[in-house]
Amino acid sequence: MNLRQIETFLCVAELASFRRAAETLHRSQSVVSVHVQQMEKELGVPLFERTTRSVLLTAGGRTLLIRLKSVMDELKSVAHELREESGLRRGRVSIGTSPSISTHQLPAIIAAYQAAYPGITLELHEAFAKGMYDDVRDRVTDFAIGPRVDGLKDFDIRPVIKDPIVAVLPAGYRLEGRRSVSLKEIAGQPHLSMPRGTAIRGVIEDAFKAESLVFAPKFEVIHQQTLFSMVEAGLGVTILPLMSVPLERSDRYKVALLRAPAISREICLVTLKGKTLSPAALRCSGMIVDGLRTLTGRQESGRVG
C-alpha cells in the first residue's frame, strides 16, 4: 500500500461513494476504483460491498479503517512536530561542554538562545574532555564545545577560538608592571593543579617537559573555583585557561599571560561524524560559536593584569 491508495480508501470509506471520492480527490473514478482493487488484492480481502445504491465497508474494511485512521493521525502529529522543530518553535537540544567554558562563558549565550526560542528545551552536560567526547559519541549530547583532543576518529572537530593559558598568582606576587611571566620564573613556586586526566593538566605537563622543568603540584583539586580560593589564601600559583578567570576578579590574586613559551588551547565545536544536527541544535551551536568569538575578542583586556 502507498499513501495515495490509503488516501483513496479513507475518502471512499468516509463518503460511502466512489464517485464523490473521485470528485473530492480530483481523480477519475476509474483511478479510485483501481486504487481500491490494488489494496484488496494486496490484502487478500474485499474492503467494500458494492451495490447499485450503496458502498459499504466489509468487516475487513472496518478493521483497516480503524487502524489507518490511527496511523494517519500519528503521521499528521509527526508532520506537525517536524514543522514546529524546523521553525524552532519546539524541540530539545543537549549541549556538552567542559566546566571551564560553562562557568563564565555559556550562561549569557544560553540565556540569549532561550529568550529567542522559548519553545526549545535545553540540556547542559558538563564533563572533562574525555567524558565530553564520550557523551557526543553515545548521543547523550547533540554536540559539544570544548578543548580539542587529538587522536579521535569518530568526530568532526571544528576549531572555534584559541584560549590562552595564564598564570594565576597571589596578590603579593611582584609582576613589576608586566602582564606576563615565564614558566621558568614560576616553576619554583608551590603549584596548585587540576588532577591528571584533565585536558589542561596534560597541556601544562607537556609545557613544563618541553622546558626541561619538573611539574610537581602541591595540591590537586577537581574544581577550578577551589584553585582560585587557594591562590587567594596564598597557598601557591595555578595555571589555567583564560576562560576560567571570572570577569569580575578578586583583588586577592593576579593574572598574567605565560611567555617563553606562550601556551594556549584550541576550543572546538565537536559533532559526531556523519550526524546531521537538528535545526534547533544547529542554531544553538551557531550562537555559541559566535558568542565565544565575540567574548574572546574582549576577554584578555579585562582579565589579565
Could you outline the blueprint of secondary structure elements for this entry?
Blueprint: H1 3-15, H2 18-25, H3 29-43, E1 48-50, E2 55-57, H4 59-86, E3 91-97, H5 99-102, H6 106-116, E4 120-126, H7 129-137, E5 143-147, E6 155-170, E7 180-182, H8 183-186, E8 191-193, H9 199-210, E9 219-220, H10 224-232, E10 237-241, E11 253-259, E12 264-272, H11 279-303
User: N- to C-terminal separation?
Assistant: 72 Å
Rough outline: rod-shaped
**Fraction of residues in helices?**
40-55%
Give the CATH class of the largest domain. Answer: Alpha Beta
| Helix and strand sequence | HHHEEHEHHEHEEEHEHEHEEEH
- Structural class, from secondary structure content? alpha/beta
Number of helix segments? 11
Poorly predicted runs: none
- Provide the residue-averaged pLDDT: 88
Largest sheet: 10 strands, mixed
Describe what you observe in this structure:
The longest helix has 28 residues, at 59-86. Helix 2 crosses helix 3 (29-43). This protein has eleven helices and twelve strands. With 305 residues, the protein is an alpha/beta fold. The chain has three domains: 3-84, Arc Repressor Mutant, subunit A; 91-160 and 266-303, D-Maltodextrin-Binding Protein, domain 2 (3-Layer(aba) Sandwich), CATH 3.40.190.10; 163-264, 3-Layer(aba) Sandwich (D-Maltodextrin-Binding Protein, domain 2). Strand 1 and strand 2 (55-57) form a beta hairpin. The mean pLDDT is 88. Strands 3, 4, 5, 6, 7, 8, 9, 10, 11 and 12 form a ten-stranded mixed sheet that branches. Strands 1-2 form a two-stranded antiparallel sheet.
